[in-house]
Write a structure and sequence with these properties.
Number of domains: 2
Radius of gyration: 21 Å
Strand content: 25-35%
Mean pLDDT: 79
Oligomer: single chain
Low-confidence stretches: 1-27, 82-86
Largest sheet: 8 strands, mixed
Number of strands: 8
Number of helices: 8
Helix content: 25-40%
Distance between the termini: 65 Å
Structural class: alpha+beta
Order of helices and strands: HHHEEEHEEHEEEHHH
Shape: globular
């Protein structure tokens, strides 16, 4: 009888573990899926780019701007290529300030085109600071065009922050770029940012969207994808609203 009880108990535990595993998969947190691995990779890349930029002496993003930002988005290795007609495309990660730190990351695509004399391929890292609640609302929509719908300005770097009062008061978004080792503010226009639903659903489940992740705070990020918000917290505590 004791053996029968033990066998039953083992069977029940097996069912429980199977249900837990099924639940995790149903919620989208399946670390073995390619989209989940991709999301974790994007978070790590964004964290590394942000660290490299902030660790550049006198050329990083001013700390006082980071402390005032509602959200920060990083798009590593955006590729720009073309011959006369050009196009750029890349993917990135965003996290927003909350009462308890930086939010779980949401995932985005960046696309845009250009016309003019150009040839070749170039890789650029972009950093966007969303300074206002209105800027945040644009980010969590289905998609928006920077410079079209959003008020964007080139962000100051290093010691230039002291002369940027007017920019901070008026711009919804401050934009930066790093290309060939040079980091500077850039008035980024003509690019469209949209949600990367595949990565969001892989990490948080089929109902997840940027609003639920960044504003409504419905989701907790698994450790594998928390690399970017964790890195943000080392340079600017995310506690409290700016």
């Amino acid at each position: 009888m004791r053996l029968r009880f033990s066998s039953s108990l083992i069977g029940i535990c097996g069912v429980c573990f199977a249900l837990v595993g099924l639940s995790a998969t149903a919620l989208g947190q399946d670390p073995t899926s390619s989209d989940f691995k991709d999301a974790a990779k994007q978070s790590r890349k964004a964290a590394q780019v942000f660290k490299e930029i902030m660790d550049t002496p006198d050329k990083g993003i001013p700390r006082d701007l980071l402390h005032k930002a509602e959200c920060v988005a990083v798009f590593p290795s955006v590729i720009k290529a073309g011959f006369v007609l050009g196009a750029r495309g890349g993917r990135g990660v965003a996290s927003c300030r909350t009462e308890h730190g930086w939010s779980a990351p949401a995932f985005f695509d960046l696309k845009g085109g250009s016309v003019g004399l150009q040839i070749g391929v170039q890789s650029t890292d972009f950093v966007l600071l969303f300074m206002t609640a209105k800027g945040l609302e644009r980010l969590i929509g289905d998609k928006f065009e920077i410079g079209g719908e959003g008020s964007v300005a080139a962000g100051p770097v290093g010691r230039e922050a002291g002369a940027s009062t007017d920019i901070r008061l008026t711009a919804e978004i401050l934009s930066y770029s790093r290309s060939k080792g040079l980091f500077a503010g850039l008035e980024l226009k003509g690019v469209v940012i949209s949600q990367d639903k595949d990565d969001e659903h892989a990490v948080y489940g089929p109902d997840a969207d940027a609003r639920g992740i960044l504003k409504d705070l419905k989701y907790e990020a698994p450790p594998d994808v928390r690399t970017f918000p964790t890195r943000l917290g080392r340079y600017a505590p995310g506690v409290g609203k700016p």
